[in-house]
Every structure is written in structure tokens, then in C-alpha cells.
Write a structure and sequence with these properties.
It is a single chain. This protein is α/β, with parallel strands linked by helices. Helix content is about 15%, strand content about 20%. The protein is elongated.
Length: about 260
């Protein structure tokens, strides 16, 4: 049948993956470094992925295509919709998992991931505060003020072998899983963290798997909503623990 459907320009696509979590039907995946439509039957043609492509590589066209089949949409591709209000910021009391604690004072200076250092390998933790899970963090947490902030997918510390020395050192940190967490309120909380603290930089670290790029999309949206043009760096970690790419993410204002 003739209907509207997504067309991806592979010449323009740089494989950033921002379109993947934007497609609730799971019709787009990163394959061989490019975004690709994996099945006509998964694309509803509404184009919710369009506004998430920084390279303007996605558009809607009309062509002969199989009808959209909602029953074919994998159940895991649609995040659960929570009707409960966003998790409130925790107070200083209650469960120890949510009680703020400063662990390093003053924090070490952050190191570039590719910086060669004479420091011997060490088991010493570089974690500067507690808690670390985004659900438990308050935007007013003291560790965020004037900080270099690391926002990491929760698989990254497991996969990246030198996480503490090369990534966590000298940074405040927030850990989240864009696939398994209830992300209701995450963009709003990240917006408040960026807006209300004089952050020096934000580094996002996520795995190479497509679902993990959702954390990048949330932070990019939060920066835009905050109205602050804080430096944003994206680091992609491979399944074997290697750094696949590092890049600075331009703001919408910079084009």
C-alpha cells in the first residue's frame, strides 16, 4: 500500500543513535554504524524520530510499504508509562541509600580518558559523594555546585576497566539506565541539575547498544531546556570495555 514512512539518508547519518530511543516502536536500529529502518511493519510513519536527528538525516516520504503492524512491535521497545508523580527529591534522613555523604574533599582534578599518567594502578575509589543513582539525587546536592558532572549508564562501570581513574576521578556522578529505570521525571531532574548549578562540564558515558543512547537523548534535551550552554561530551563504551568514540555534542544554538 502507498503510505507515509521514514526514509534515512545514510550519507548524512553519523550513527549517533539519538533517533533509536525516540522511536517507541523499535523500527530504527544502529547497524554497521548507521541508523537503519529494520522493518516497514514497525514504522507507523508519524515521524516522532525526526526532531532528534542533529544531521537532518531522517524525513517522511510516501512509498509502497507493508502496513504498520502494531502487534509486531516488540513489547520491550515501549517503555512503561507511569501515572505516578515523579520521584520526589530525597531528604537528608531515611534510608542510607538516599542519605547524602561527601566522600572526598577536595576532589581530584578530572583526567582525560586518553591521558597517560604515571600514577600506578590503585584500588582506591574516586567516588566523591553518595548516593549516585539518578532517582535518589537532589538537584540541590552540594556535590553538583561548580562540578564536572559525569552521567553514566549503569553498565559502564562494569564494562570500562579503568572507570575510577580515567572517568570518575574529579567528577560528580549520576548513574541511570534508560532502558530499565522508570525514567519519568529524569529530563526534568537533569534540567534542574544543569540549570541550578554552575557546572563546568557534563560528560555522558554509555554503552554501544542502541537502547543505551537514551541517556544521551535525555541529557541533550535537559541542556536545551535549562537554557545553559554547558560543554557536553559523549563517550561510547564497547561491550569489551574499549572506548569506541569521544565527541563534543554541539548545542542546538550552535547548529
Amino acid at each position: 500500500m502507498l503510505r507515509e514512512i521514514v526514509l534515512i539518508d545514510e550519507e548524512k547519518c553519523d550513527g549517533c543513535g539519538l533517533c533509536v530511543p525516540a522511536c517507541a516502536e523499535g523500527a530504527i536500529q544502529i547497524i554497521d554504524g548507521k541508523a537503519r529502518l529494520v522493518s516497514d511493519t514497525l514504522c507507523d510513519g508519524l515521524g516522532e524520530c525526526l526532531g532528534h536527528c542533529p544531521k537532518d538525516a531522517i524525513r517522511i516520504i510516501k512509498r509502497d510499504a507493508s502496513p504498520f503492524d502494531e502487534s509486531a512491535v516488540p513489547a520491550h521497545s515501549k517503555p512503561p508509562v507511569s501515572k505516578s508523580p515523579a520521584t520526589p527529591c530525597p531528604s537528608a534522613g531515611g534510608c542510607p541509600s538516599a542519605r547524602f555523604a561527601k566522600l572526598l574533599d577536595p576532589p581530584d582534578a578530572p583526567r582525560s580518558t586518553d591521558e597517560q599518567t604515571l600514577d600506578p594502578p590503585s584500588a582506591a575509589s574516586k567516588l566523591a559523594h553518595w548516593p549516585v543513582q539518578l532517582h535518589l539525587l537532589s538537584p540541590q546536592m552540594p556535590a553538583f555546585q561548580n562540578a564536572h558532572l559525569l552521567i553514566a549508564a549503569d553498565c559502564v562501570p562494569v564494562a570500562f576497566p579503568d572507570f575510577h581513574r580515567k572517568m570518575l576521578r574529579g567528577r560528580a556522578v549520576a548513574i541511570a539506565c534508560p532502558k530499565l529505570d522508570d525514567t519519568t521525571g529524569y529530563v526534568e531532574k537533569l534540567t534542574a541539575i544543569i540549570r541550578d548549578n554552575d557546572l563546568q562540564s557534563v560528560t555522558i558515558a554509555h554503552m554501544e547498544v542502541p537502547c543505551c543512547t537514551g541517556i544521551l537523548a535525555m541529557v541533550v534535551e535537559a541542556r536545551q531546556k535549562s537554557g545553559k550552554n554547558v560543554t557536553l561530551k559523549d563517550i561510547v563504551i564497547g561491550l569489551r570495555g574499549e572506548i569506541l568514540s569521544e565527541r563534543e555534542v554541539p548545542s542546538a544554538a550552535a547548529g
